[in-house]
Automatic annotation (TrEMBL):
Keywords: Fatty acid biosynthesis, Fatty acid metabolism, Hydrolase, Lipid biosynthesis, Lipid metabolism, Transit peptide. Pfam families: Acyl-ACP_TE (PF01643), Acyl-ACP_TE_C (PF20791). Residues 154-241 form the Acyl-ACP thioesterase-like C-terminal domain. Residues 3-131 form the Acyl-ACP thioesterase N-terminal hotdog domain. GO terms for molecular function: acyl carrier activity; fatty acyl-[ACP] hydrolase activity. This is Acyl-ACP thioesterase. Belongs to the acyl-ACP thioesterase family. It comes from the Bacteria.
Length: 245
């Protein structure tokens, strides 16, 4: 597998009140890097659409966090497409501090969908060959999520705006996490940082609809759902207090 690396310095507008990088920004940075590698290997989003009428979407993330990057910190991020099978591609992103320490790791699962039908398409060898990924037969099972209780800790409605939509025509995947984190209060977010995030996308959300964000907090763990008429996304986050770092 080919490894692609690039540096990123955390700007003011991507950091929160604690000085840490905003959580949704981690996914935006990851998507940027995967796109850069695809372009270098002549497998850009434009190439995939022109040759197959397909586009890549992420269906699941698992994030292990040692420490969040902070404002004005320059980090090195490396990404590589590890393995793939008939339906899924598995890609990792590893964020390193300037001294070489690992900050966090994002493991992601991707699928190809047909731009017109919005249905999952088979992963053709030609599309992923330049990444030099290993082809496997087995499907790697993700995290098993539990349902929220009938009476969640809190819930709130959001209207999908133009700026919530990405070039694939649906809600950008980082926006789901934004809606989820918004359920937690200021005191909790200003004194806690995540150490583990599981995030799964079940059904895409399009422009102009209303979504409901529901959350349940149990101790140092939060459980989240994004719903329209169906379940669209769910997450589980394990938190720790800032003074535990």
């Amino acid at each position: 597998m080919l490894i692609y690396k690039n540096e990123f310095t955390v700007p003011y507008y991507e950091s929160d009140v604690t000085g840490n990088i905003k959580l949704p920004s981690l996914f935006n940075i990851a998507l940027q890097l995967s796109g850069e590698q695809g372009a270098i290997l002549n497998r850009s989003d434009q190439w995939t659409k022109a040759h197959y009428n397909y586009t890549w979407i992420v269906v699941e993330y698992e994030v292990d966090i040692q420490r969040l990057p902070v404002f004005n910190e320059t980090m090195t991020i490396e990404t590589f497409a590890k393995t793939y099978n008939k339906f899924f591609c598995y890609r990792d992103f590893i964020f390193y501090a300037e001294n070489g320490d690992e900050l966090l790791k994002i493991s992601s699962t991707w699928v190809l969908i047909d731009v017109d039908t919005r249905k999952v398409a088979h992963v053709e060898d030609e599309i992923v060959a330049p990444y030099q990924s290993e082809k496997i037969k087995r499907i790697i099972r993700g995290h098993r999520f539990r349902e929220l209780k009938l009476e969640p800790t809190c819930e709130r409605n959001y209207f999908v705006r133009f700026n919530d939509i990405d070039q694939n025509g649906h809600v950008n995947n980082s926006k789901y996490l934004d809606w989820m984190i918004d359920m937690l209060d200021f005191d909790f977010l200003s004194t806690h940082v995540p150490q583990k995030i599981y995030l799964k996308y079940a059904k895409e959300v399009l422009y102009g609809v209303s979504v409901k964000s529901r959350a349940e907090v149990v101790g140092e763990q939060s459980f989240h759902e994004i719903l329209t008429d169906d379940l669209n996304a769910q997450a589980e986050i394990i938190w720790r207090k800032n003074d535990d770092l």
